[in-house]
Amino acid sequence: AFLERCRRYAPDYFHYEIVDPERDPLILKRLNIPRASPSGTVVVRTEDGKPRVIPLTGVNPRLEERDFTNALIAVLRDASPKVYFLTGHGEKDITDQDPEQGGHILQGLLLGESYQVEQTQFSPDRPVVPADCDLLVVYGQNRDFRPYDVTAIQEYLDRGGRLLIFLDIWAVQRVPNVRTVEVLRPWLEEQFGIVIGEDIVLSRSTGVELTLKPTFSVEDGESAYRGSYHDSHPITRGYTEILKLRGARTVSLQEKMPAGVLGEELLRSTPDCWAETDLTSVIQRGWQSARMDANEKQGSLPIAVAVVKKTERMADDSGTPRESRIVVVGSRDIATNRGILSSGNLVMNMFAWLTESEELIGIRAT
Asked: What DSSP line would sit under 68-133, residue for residue?
């Protein structure tokens, strides 16, 4: 029934047939399938492309929409974007299977949509982003960057590179009588107008547990937002899920952006929140001890941004300048094994937009 609906909605593009390998044993060889599943096997292919095989297994085998969608993406894509996860600053391991803080579910989603996933670390002697990197990801570092780290990333972005940062709730610790110089936050602000607050967003009712919604009881209709989500940006446009985050910090844009940089604030908290700046108190005594001060920001606070910047590099023979793209999210929890169970589509939209694979935003199943 599922395949028949696909054929009915796209008769000019989609055709299917059901074959019995016992009656036609050569069919497996023609399709380059070493072994068919006893419960059934689905093969997705284009006329001249490499097939993608989906074996059906289990007591009640069925074709899942996500598996079918991923197979379509795999056979239709001309290339497989290469995603590098940066290490060396206390970032979380993308292969970690911890059910709460691990990241292997995100890795599996990326592989399922034909991304190549690797890790990389900058060498102090020759800090450089790999030449074949389509997207560099910072997956929740707990130590600040070094000057040569941002130099390498800046050179990469100047060539039209793409950067995705999931922030842990960290801040440079202030040591009495010792001058501490930050690197990452000032660089993002100066070069791209991205302002990362030295704060934590707290809700009056749920503390560090934040709920992002497609509608609010107040403030709707007054801005470019639809509830917690920007209404027109490709990443969040049409997104209607309720997301729960365990901790976030503010990420906003300067009122006057640097020359050549355009951006949007993608996500915001619900109106019952404020940006707590007394992090030491929260860490030592818990969020229950926090009290909103008059000078602290309150209301619907931005917690994720997307920016683009034109570069000197040409994207193609047409002479169109290639743009660098950056997304910064004030919470890594949105991409952990726990969080991504509800936010997977939104996170994968970020990867699609950054790698200019916007068609995946529309094709991905709920």
From this structure: HHHHHHHHH-SS--EEEEEESSSPPPTT---TTT--HHHHHHHHHTT-EEEEEE--SSS----TT-
